[in-house]
Amino acid sequence: MARYSRQELLPDIGLEGQHRIASAKVLIVGVGALGCGAADLLARAGVGTLRIVDRDVVELTNLQRQVLFDQADAEACRPKALAAAERLKEINPEIRVEPCIEDVRPENILSLSNDCDLILDGLDNFETRYLINDVAVKTGLPYIYAGAIGTEGLVMPILPKSGGSGSITWPESEATPCLRCVFPEPPSPGSSPTCDTAGILGPTIGTVAAHQSAIAMSLLVGRLEQTDRSLHTMDPWNGINRRMATGDPRSDCPCCEKKHFEWLDGNRISSTDSICGREVVQIRPRTDGSVDLLALRTHLKNAGDVRGDTHAVQVDIQECDVRMTIFEDGRALVGVSDISLARTLYDRYIGA
Ligand SMILES: [Zn+2]
After folding, report:
1. How far apart are the CA of 119 and the centre of ligand 1, in A?
2. What SS3 class is residue 99?
């Protein structure tokens, strides 16, 4: 056990904590920047099983911040889940790594999270985050929500009221608000910048992924009370570090109080269809509000040529030579034939 001797020396971990870490199974949803950073740290720490899910392939633009991938992965367009799994096995052959090349959807998320102890957020879109929140609340799994954009990131662990179903349990008095208690609705499509329109600093990813991993390890060794449960924002570029207490779960929360799992039930998940005879996929998000096309045009100005009016915006994305048209209601036409790729591009450039 020489491999883990330095972390076993920490009084909070010790031999017993190391055994708990070794018997744990963690689901990492998305192995982009945050997922790579967290998977790297958790594999080195000896988490017994890492199940990593991702729908994308490695691209050259990922290498600046996605620490498990290299030039050869990008040149070969390797699926991220596979490339990450191979790298993690080289880092630590003693652990089990389960790669899943899948788009996380209401149909598969329960089987993916089944038998896991904790879910870690490596996502790039809000729709899937609200789906994961539904699953965490429904099944009682801790969910470590995180995100990063520009030079700033945030982490917020969610310990649902149901009290834990895997190896990590807690009394209801220790439960935290869920994602919907804090952010009742996801931002409307196109309302916020994304990493692909506003950029992202590599060290910010390192900071956020490290914080997520520390919280995961802390929960896995049963160090419940001392775990940072705040909404913690961090910006290493400007030296900012803020903790905001999130209080108790909201008594009128549609998810953790009323148990309405709108994303898991499929009612809030966007639909996609290929348009026959054309190399175009149509994406229809389930959103109530309309898209702020003016803000969207500003976000997209770095991505390529943008034109349009108050009813639709069209962009020719320079990097991948794909045309995308977005309408007021959030509906988009993406100029590719592959549905999964269309979703990826929508999440990257429009953001939902
Ligand atoms: Zn809630």
Report:
1. 17
2. strand
pTM above 0.85, yes or no: yes
Picking from 125, 132, 146, 129, the residue whose alpha carbon sits closest to that of residue 346 is: 125
DSSP state of 2: G
Topology alike, domains 2-244 and 271-349: no
Q: Is 116 a catalytic residue?
A: no
Q: Does domain 2-244 have CATH number 3.20.20.190?
A: no
- Which residues have C-beta under 5 Å from ligand 1, the single-atom ion? 178, 180-181, 253, 255-256
What sign has the CA pseudo-torsion 57, 60, 61, 65?
Answer: positive
Beta bridge partners of 149: 152
Residue closest to 211 by CA, chosen among 160, 154, 158: 154
Domain boundaries, the chain: 2-244, 271-349
User: Which uninterrupted H or E stretch holds 337?
Assistant: none
* Distance between Cα 151 and ligand 1 center (Å): 28
Instruction: Count Cα atoms within 13 angstroms, Cβ side, for 96.
Output: 12
Q: Which of 195, 253, 255, 256 is catalytic?
A: 195
Q: Mean pLDDT, to the nearest integer, of 310-317?
A: 90
Query: If you average pLDDT over residues 168-197, what whole number do you get?
Result: 92
pLDDT tens per residue, range 226-260: 999 999 999 999 999 999 999 999 999 999 999 99
pLDDT digits (tens, 9 = 90+) for 89-98: 999 999 999 9
Alpha-carbon distance 229 to 135, whole Å? 19
Q: Answer yes or no: CATH 3.30.310 is held by domain 271-349.
A: yes
Dist CA 163 CA 34 (whole Å): 26
